[in-house]
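Tokens as discussed.
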């Protein structure tokens, strides 16, 4: 059995499962945003969930491989009912028995962590790990220690500090310290991007005396950007010529019809990045670089989710097949159909 922790609208998961079905593999897909599976019990020998479609009880420790695509297990996977106990000795205790209670949520988090560890340590084959958000600042510093160039950066809380950075670096960009905002609210989608702090934004910020600690980095003039999908010491890279379009000049994720090409990173950069992944104890992810005007490779970040669709299809890497074969056999395949 192959276990995939994902979300219900993830197309990359669909494509990989199509290949696994073709290969004759038994696949269990658990989505973080549907109600198909419900936690049943945990014993020394098993982690049991009930498939509500078939009423079959599944032991997740039967999985030989796991793809840690998304978080997979949400609070509702463990409990969908409100407690019937609302009061005790005429005292209202509903705040403590509600699913929104912080103590109950912490119980869920700790149980989920333990289940993740059991699955990860039990599986012979893992793509990724139960880590879905790296600390950008820690990864910056670790990448620097490994020998990669990183942008100059500061964490600031005032306009005066922002002005200091402006004088030091000239151009400034700002981005989230974490993965940023990705929310669906009332049929509107909200995202945060890397944004250029231009004169208009400086004027707006000047009206605020202080603000929440914010990451700013030196703006780098680029030849192009590189997005690499990494799996078990193999790179599948793409050059993105985003600097020629004003919408994507600062952040290529503001998608336009930019020219892209398959790309090979220098062997030295690949070797250092492999070392970085080893230190993170992680075997899969998406890595972003900038090649600056002087030909230097600047490391930007690692996304542990490992988005690969935007790299795969334009460059014809067949990554959905490669991932499926890795989950089946535990190694990178060369016999791409």
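Sequence:
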């Amino acid at each position: 059995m192959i276990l995939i922790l994902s979300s219900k609208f993830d197309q990359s998961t669909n494509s990989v499962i199509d290949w696994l079905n073709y290969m004759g593999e038994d696949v269990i897909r658990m989505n973080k945003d549907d109600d198909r599976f419900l936690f049943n019990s945990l014993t020394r020998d098993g982690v049991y969930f009930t498939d509500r479609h078939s009423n079959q009880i599944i032991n997740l420790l039967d999985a030989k491989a796991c793809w840690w695509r998304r978080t997979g297990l949400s609070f509702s996977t463990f409990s969908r009912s409100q407690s019937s106990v609302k009061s005790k000795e005429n005292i209202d205790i509903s705040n403590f028995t509600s699913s929104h209670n912080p103590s109950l949520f912490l119980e869920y988090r700790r149980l989920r962590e333990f289940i993740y560890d059991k699955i990860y340590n039990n599986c012979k084959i893992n793509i990724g790990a139960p880590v879905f958000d790296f600390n950008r600042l820690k990864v910056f510093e670790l990448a620097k220690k490994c020998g990669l160039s990183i942008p100059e950066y500061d964490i600031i809380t005032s306009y005066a500090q922002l002005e200091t950075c402006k004088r030091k670096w000239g151009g400034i960009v700002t981005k989230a310290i974490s993965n940023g905002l990705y929310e669906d609210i009332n049929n509107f989608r909200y995202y945060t991007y890397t944004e250029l702090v231009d004169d208009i934004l400086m004027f707006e910020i000047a009206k605020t005396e202080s603000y929440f600690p914010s990451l700013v980095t030196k703006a780098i003039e680029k030849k192009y950007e590189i997005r690499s999908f990494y799996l078990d010491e193999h790179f599948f890279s793409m050059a993105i010529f985003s600097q020629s379009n004003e919408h994507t000049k600062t952040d290529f994720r503001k998608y336009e019809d930019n020219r892209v090409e398959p790309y090979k990173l220098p062997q030295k950069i690949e070797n250092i990045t492999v070392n970085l992944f080893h230190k993170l104890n992680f075997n899969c992810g998406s890595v972003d670089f900038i090649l600056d005007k002087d030909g230097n490779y600047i490391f930007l970040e690692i996304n542990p989710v490992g988005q690969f669709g935007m790299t795969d299809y334009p460059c014809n890497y067949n990554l959905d097949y490669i991932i499926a074969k890795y989950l089946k056999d535990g190694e990178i395949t060369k016999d791409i159909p």
